[in-house]
Design a protein that fits this description.
The structure is a homotetramer. Chain A has helices at about 1-30, 35-45, 45-55, 55-80, 85-105, 105-115, 125-145, 155-185, 190-205, 215-225. By secondary structure, chain A is an all-alpha fold. Chain A is globular, with a radius of gyration of 21 Å. The structure holds a DNA duplex.
DNA sequence: AATGAATGAGCATTCATTCAT
DNA sequence: TATGAATGAATGCTCATTCAT
């Protein structure tokens, strides 16, 4: 058992070293340029050895995505801890995401990657990392709801997903189109993101005039429940 | 002249046939699996022949993206024409996007692809197709603004970008996570999307309580204007 | 007959236009970049039409080589006309070649190309263009021989070939290694070429001490006559 | 250690086998016809495997060129060792080159290839192989100079370049035009080459009448020194 | 546990030439 | 005489994964 433990420590270290190397490569050359050969070379082990620690390239990316999501959760916690105002906390989640995108670009790329690609199975730790984030966000939303600073019809868990989708999409567009943003609108990434955040937050507030009954929208919503 | 016309018709047809084949391949195997060899084989022409009609693989994808965007614009127009209510029209844009995603999945993939990838140059018809969509959406928002059914501080063109980013992100998450959606929340894609639309629309309404001065959010916004 | 004549005039013009275009392409992009498509495009005729005037790409290069050799002969004549001294005339041939290389680089490339490649058949005009140059050079050497300013054992025609081979080789090395020439020896192309010319001319002079009988060299020469 | 040695032996052998195969292909079909697919097929390994031993096609050609240059140097040494006469040694260099061309035609092609092509970077072993040859030839010339059997104004290193350029050019013409040589002059390659060697050697001898002052040639030489 | 040689299908692109019109 | 669409073999190179040692 002792031996096993020592072994698994060594194993853990190599596992980490492989992820570190892969992260470096992505940071330097981008996710697309990641290859098993490069990883093996960087860690100074044989290509075959990498497969002793990770079943496939996908698993390495998965491993890094776990890291990335942990870091994102840390960002969320850190930003939310700055205020006690439940609504502010929600805003802080968005801003945490923004700064995560700006400061941890590699991680953001990884998190987005998993959002963009169908057919990537998430299980085990990877699924958990996603769950932890959801849980945290849900908690923040639930708290705001309990304290009645946001609409009462909101389903916290679902709303978390919506937030997530919107933020991912916005940051994607910020990433892709920041040139146009600057050129045509004279807006910085932050200003643009501000518009988005303001929009979303404003949509949560309870003093909203609800769409009139019988509107097309209502009909569509009804329909969608079928 | 007749001959010339006939010829250019034949050419036009092959051009179309190539795009059709490429579209089929993407529909069946995904955008990543698209290759020139497959296209040639599907059209039953030589590989070199494909290059008589398209300068590169990128041009084929570009050609399909033009198709996709045209179709998306058609969706927008069709859905918006269903109502005269300016706010409803905005909602309809979101729903048009949703049904575009559901019904024209390949096209949606193509449109998203161009959103997700930096460094893809857009020119000529491709750039125009993007512009036409922006123009249309901007017009709808501008109209709602003029009619005072949405906040007056909205910048229509910028808001169009925000809409676009959010919708892309949400549909991405719908695409990737619809299993979880069903499993954990018992929600259909449509219901989930509904929550999103309601959220966004609600955020546009003028009778909004603005975030209190001095809130963290305000500070960040101020900051971002520097 | 008149019609035929007119036709062949028109034909001649197109023939010329094709060569002109090919020459431009080689001048701009190099011999390797020459392609039938580019030629056709440049002349604004169909690809197939080019084949009505030239049987193959090789024939176009052959046609240009004829031009190039004509120009080279003109250089030879021009440079030789500058002096009446028969030895000087020989020197002038070398210098004509040097300036041909410097000033008509495309033509030089073509002339060299035919020297470097085995299996390129030369017939008709192409063979003649080579013959004319040989004849001219042979005449110059023969004249110097008759006037006893060079060794009497020289076979003019053969010597012409030797000159040609040496000059081609030297210019090739000048072309390839001019950087080293400048860097390691501080010599310009001209200075280097000067050393070569001086060497060669000096080898032609009659007051030479011939290699001693019985030397290895003599043996090899004897051997070679077998 | 044994194992490692055996392994690296096996690797060395495959490396050699690839070069051998490439050499065969060049010998049979010419340098231009060399392709990675052909090499792989000839060695009966997968295309990708070739890339485990050579980074690129250019590296294979480079590897063969090293072989070729080594062999050429061996020829030089062997031929020069046949005599102690310093002038004879110079002649032997030319004859070594001739027999290298005749007997190791593929290698000659490779050596010429590197002379003819601009923009081929030479480094490491490849650069060294070139340097060793230069050094050897320079030594032979320097020795002859020191012993006063050739002109004292000769710069050994530069002269080596001139020799090399001339020999490359002559052998090229021998290669290309040997049919004409036989047909029109009734001369064998060897006889022709003899004329060349005699010419060159004769040009090195010190008892030379220098070109008269004021001749065109002198002017050009002066000019070139500016 | 570790190796690293081997695989081989796959990629986008080129181009001299042909031939039906 | 002129067209230009079509061909299709060929190019150098990549890379996730396997497996005998």
């Amino acid at each position: 058992m002792k031996i096993k433990h020592r072994k698994s420590l060594a194993k853990e270290m190599k596992h980490t070293a492989i992820l570190d190397a892969a992260e470096d490569i992505i940071a330097t050359e981008g996710l697309e340029a990641l290859s098993m050969s490069k990883v093996a070379k960087a860690v100074k082990i044989a290509k075959g050895t990498v497969y002793l620690y990770f079943e496939s390239k996908e698993e390495i990316i998965g491993g890094l995505t776990i890291r990335a999501r942990r870091e994102l959760l840390a960002y969320f916690k850190e930003y939310c801890s700055r205020t006690n105002d439940p609504l502010e906390k929600i805003k802080q989640i968005f801003w945490a995401d923004f700064y995560f995108y700006k400061e941890k670009h590699t991680y953001h790329e990884l998190v987005s990657f998993y959002e963009q690609n169908t057919g990537l199975e998430e299980k085990g730790e990877l699924a958990m990392s996603s769950y932890h984030i959801s849980q945290f966000v849900e908690g923040i939303i639930e708290d705001a709801k309990r304290k009645k600073v946001i609409r009462q019809d909101i389903i916290s868990s679902l709303q978390g997903f919506v937030f997530w989708g919107m933020a991912v999409g916005i940051l994607q567009i910020v990433n892709t189109k920041h040139d146009q943003l600057a050129k045509y609108f004279g807006k910085s990434e932050k200003e643009f993101y501000s518009v988005f955040v303001e929009n979303v937050i404003s949509g949560l507030l309870p003093e909203k005039i609800l769409p009139a009954q019988g509107s097309v929208y209502q009909r569509v919503v009804q329909e969608s429940k079928k």
